[in-house]
Structure formats: C-alpha cells, structure tokens
Specification:
There is one protein chain. The protein is an alpha/beta fold and 255 residues long. It contains eleven helices and nine strands. The protein has two domains: 1-33 and 80-120 and 166-255, Rossmann fold, CATH 3.40.50.1220; 35-77 and 125-160, SIR2/SIRT2 'Small Domain' (2-Layer Sandwich), CATH 3.30.1600.10. The model has no long low-confidence stretch (mean pLDDT 93). Bound molecules: ligand BV8. Residues 24-26, 29-30, 35-38, 41, 52, 102-104, 120, 160-166, 189-191, 193-196, 214-217, 219, 232-234 line the site of ligand BV8.
C-alpha cells in the first residue's frame, strides 16, 4: 500500500506553529546505524547495562572502549538519510521547530537541522573523567585501547549518557520547554522505553500537542498517540515535508 498523508494531517502540519521532532535510533537505521532493541539491535546480544553504564566502564574499560570504537567506526562511514533531510526542510518552514534526539551520531546537524537537543550526548566527543579535558576522535583512535588523559592520567570516556547517569541539564530543560510549547509533537523511530526521554511525548500531549508517532512497529506510546503512521521515517518524513511545503504555498483559506 502506498504510504500517504491524510488531508487532515497535511492541514495540521501546514498550520502548526511549534513543531517538535523527537527521534530515536530508527531514524538513523536507514543510514546504516544499527538500532538497540530491534531484531538486528546491538542490545540483542548484550544487555545495555553491561556496556552503556559507569559500572561496566569501571569494571572493564577496555571492553567498553572496544564497543564504542566499533560503533565509532560504523558511524564514521554513515551519512544523513532522507528522513534527516526532511526534518531540516521542515525546520525552515515552521515558525518554531526543534529536534530532540536520543541519537548520538550527529546526523541531524549534518543534515542541516539547527535546533537540535542531544539528550544522550554525542559519540564524536570524549572527555577525561578526572579533569574534564575534551578529546576528539583522533586522540582516541591514536590511543589504540583505553585512552588516558596526557594532562592528568585520568581515564578518557565517550561523551554519552550512560544508564544511571543524568541527562545534560541544559538539553533536558530546553527539551521539556519545547515539548510543553509544541502544538505538533512527532515521536519518530523510537521504542519509547528509555526514561526520562520517553516521558517527553506525554509531556507534550498533556500540554495540548497533537501527538504523531512514526514507526514500522507499534510501541508502548502508540495507544496514546493521536495518530500513528506505520512505516519508515525515511518514507513518511519526506511526505510530511512535501505536504508542509505545499500548504505553506497556499493562502490560509485554501488549506
Ligand atoms: C537516568 C547512550 C537517573 C549511550 C543510552 C534501572 C537501573 C538504572 C536506571 C534505570 C533502571 N530502570 C529504569 C532506569 C532508567 C533508565 C531507563 O530508562 N532504562 C530503561 C531501559 C528501562 N534510564 C537511565 O538510566 C537514564 N538516566 O534515569 O538517570 C538518575 C536520576 C537522578 C540522578 C542520577 C541518575 C539514562 C538513559 C540513557 C541511556 N543511554 N544510550 C549509547 O548509546 O551508547 S540508551 C539508548 O536507548 C540510546 O540512547 C537510544 O537512543 C535509547 C532509546 O532507544 P531508541 O532510540 O528508541 O532505539 P531502539 O532500538 O530502542 O528503538 C528503535 C525504534 O526504531 C524501534 O521502535 C524500531 O521499530 C524503529 N525503527 C526501526 N527502523 C525504523 C524505525 N523507525 C522509523 N523508521 C525506520 N526505518
């Protein structure tokens, strides 16, 4: 069945004043980044807490660094896909637009999105746990194993949020404000199971937003969504961007 956007949703996206795109690993899946919990997911072999946690890192830093080096390698060869570019197109058209992402791959910014809140950090950044000095990937690759800070000898870690760690305060506060102020909140390509990020769609809905979910599979959020588009973000987001461009060309009375 050819995926379509209903006239009602086209009107809604054309009229929306403040749009939020809340994205998860599914949006990057079409760029070749493995998801976490899908059948091909990286968590399918290992439990998240066994790798993406401070305990895991302190217990076995080289195992955790091996895993991140593997993921950095995958991410060095990827590019934004039509879903990322569609969100950047939509941002240009909407009076207010924000991307709140759980992804750590930096693809939204590379596709041209400007207001992007990275709730779980960014794999391209690293820092010394002892003195906080930031380090780029070239330093980490050259370290070839567990990178130690040349300034203080401390352990260098990826700048991502691990389980049991709090989210970056500014990104979180800005994301809650964006969710509370949205009239259209799109939850895209996320299994909606990781908190506190997964609470944002309901914060938006409770504040009056229309909650749209895009995912090939239903999630725990689907039952609460006002509309569920079953399919890939790389298919539906370009359709939504097209509908928005068409609607913004029409005078208001013709929408
Ligand atoms: C916190 C970064 C508290 C690192 C990640 C017990 C112990 C400790 C904590 C907890 C606990 N129980 C609950 C918690 C809280 C915990 C949590 O929520 N756990 C869950 C699993 C139950 N949360 C935390 O620990 C958070 N911190 O709570 O701190 C605190 C409070 C005060 C003081 C101190 C501490 C921190 C959570 C962040 C963890 N970091 N990653 C790294 O990546 O290495 S989690 C990881 O999951 C990623 O960030 C990812 O983004 C996130 C969510 O996953 P998704 O993005 O949704 O990806 P997933 O694979 O699950 O789903 C993909 C979806 O895409 C699927 O639905 C699929 O159908 C769909 N899809 C596939 N293809 C497509 C598609 N969709 C569209 N198009 C396609 N083509």
């Amino acid at each position: 069945m050819t995926p379509v956007i209903s006239p009602g949703l086209s009107r809604r996206i054309g009229d929306a004043r403040a749009i939020v795109a809340f994205t998860g690993a599914g949006v990057s899946a079409e760029s070749g980044v493995p998801t976490f919990r899908g059948t091909d997911g990286i968590w399918s072999k290992l439990k998240p807490e066994e790798l993406a946690s401070m305990n895991a890192f302190m217990k076995n830093p080289s195992m955790v660094w091996e895993w991140y080096a593997h993921r950095k390698k995958i991410m060095s060869g990827i590019a934004p896909n039509p879903g990322h570019f569609a969100l950047a197109r939509m941002e240009k058209l909407a009076p207010s637009f924000a991307v709140i992402t759980q992804n750590i791959d930096g693809l939204h910014r590379r596709a041209g999105s400007r207001t992007v809140y990275e709730l779980h950090g960014n794999i391209e950044r690293n820092y010394c746990m002892k003195c906080g000095t930031p380090y780029g990937d070239d330093f980490v690759v050259a370290a070839n194993g567990v990178p130690l800070c040349p300034a203080c000898g401390g352990l260098v870690r990826p700048d991502v949020v691990w389980f049991g760690e709090t989210l970056p305060e500014d990104e979180w506060d800005a994301s809650v404000r964006a969710a509370e102020g949205a009239d259209l909140f799109m939850s895209i390509g996320t299994s909606a199971v990781v908190y506190p990020a997964a609470s944002l769609p309901l914060v938006a809905k409770r504040s009056g937003a229309y909650l749209l979910e895009i995912n090939p599979e239903p999630t725990p959020l689907t039952a609460q969504a006002d509309e569920y588009l079953q399919g890939a973000s790389g298919v539906f987001l370009p359709l939504l961007a097209g509908a928005m461009e068409a609607a913004r060309r029409l005078p208001h009375s013709h929408r």
